[in-house]
Amino acid sequence: MLGMLSFIIVFGVLVTVHEFGHLYFAKRAGIMCPEFAIGMGPKLFSYKKDETLYTIRLLPVGGYVMMAGSGMEQNPVTAGMTVSIKKNEQNEVTHIILDDQHQFRQIEQLEAVDSDFEDQLFIKGIDQYTNEEVTYPIADEAYFVREGDLIQIAPRDRQFKNKKPWPKFLTLFAGPLFNFLLALVLFIGYFYATGTPTDKAVIGDILQDSPADKAGLVTKDRVVSIDGNSISKWEDMTSYFNSNDIKTHHIIIERDGRELKKEIKPVKATLQDGSKQVKRAVIGVNPLFTHDNLLDPLIYGVKTTFKTGLMIFSLVGALFTSIFTGTFSFDMLNGPVGIYKNTEKIASLGILPLVYFTASLSVNLGIMNLLPIPALDGGRILFVLYEAIFRRPVNKKAEIAIISLGAVFLFFVMIMVTWNDIQRYFF
């Protein structure tokens, strides 16, 4: 139960922040956003404020902001369909009624022949009373009426595709940007809670049954020297062990004002260094975390966000390289199932490790969404850059086809990763 609750919270926070970034900048640009959704699939909860319907959906596999003119909308009126319309004094359609749950008066019925609710903004049909073919323009403020809800039809100037490249870019980039900002806030909060690692050679946490534990080191021991070499900084100690063979070292530590002699023999451990795994000599200790400086958590939060981003970026680069070198494996990826299992494991360690994990996931989500893959933010940003450089948008049909192919590709990858996760964790 703890793992499931933690996963729902972590997923909800990451996706909500990401999609809110898109929503915030879209609204600032004057783009109409009919829906803001967390999750996919059937609707579990909905709330409408102004022109936007806020929904929570069943499947925890993402979310979206539906923007007018972004290619996500579907025309609800098809040829041969009978609809009711209400017009204003200028003979413009103000309401297209798609059901019988309404109380409108003075309406007309049409058998739809053709319609366009994005570019030309019209509806053509056979008037059911006169049996004549008529064409009506759509008013600047017009709505679809379905199940008692009013869904506004976006005027041309409020559609994503009709905005200039700069607001388009900001709207698309805002999702990943907000993920980076969330990670920064979480990392800063984490370090304010735990303190920041000191650069002095003072022992913090000690791993059980590690060389340091067996040698009798305890938290707050200060390493004075190793094999007669003076040690003043944490890096001095780690560098010394890494640059020497695995052997027994004689160290002097200071504890409660007294100097003690100890013997310690490091072990080789495989550590992740960016996209590479390296073997290093370790003794099983972490630096001491302190609250000495009020600004240190801010500085360390920025550094950790940047460092995490570089590490994930290098791992993504290694992932794509592996595709061409033939070393790719779906074990290199984690889907919702894998993220759930990792969240469950981290949540059992406490709230602070979960905060750190969430911050790392947020950086990962931001970077992955910036990949130049159609259907992701990065792929759509490429279309915007093309428009900015060549002063014309990409052909609409070509753009829709490319994005659709990207969506199919991502769906296939998600299925394969999820199946691989299920086999890895449950069989």
From TrEMBL:
Q: Where are the transmembrane segments?
A: 6-25, 169-192, 310-334, 346-365, 400-419
The record ties this protein, via Gene3D superfamilies, to:
2.30.42.10
Keyword annotations: Hydrolase, Membrane, Metal-binding, Metalloprotease, Protease, Transmembrane, Transmembrane helix, Zinc
Q: Which CDD domains match?
A: cpPDZ_EcRseP-like, S2P-M50_PDZ_RseP-like
Q: Which GO terms describe its molecular function?
A: metallopeptidase activity
InterPro entries (UniProt xref): PDZ, PDZ_sf, Pept_M50_Zn, Peptidase_M50
Question: Is Acyltransferase set as a keyword in this record?
Answer: no
Name the needed cofactors. Answer: Zn(2+)
Organism domain of life: Bacteria
Q: What Pfam families does the annotation carry?
A: Peptidase_M50
Family from the record: Belongs to the peptidase M50B family.
**Name of the featured protein:** Zinc metalloprotease
The upper taxonomy is: Bacteria, Bacillati, Bacillota, Bacilli, Bacillales
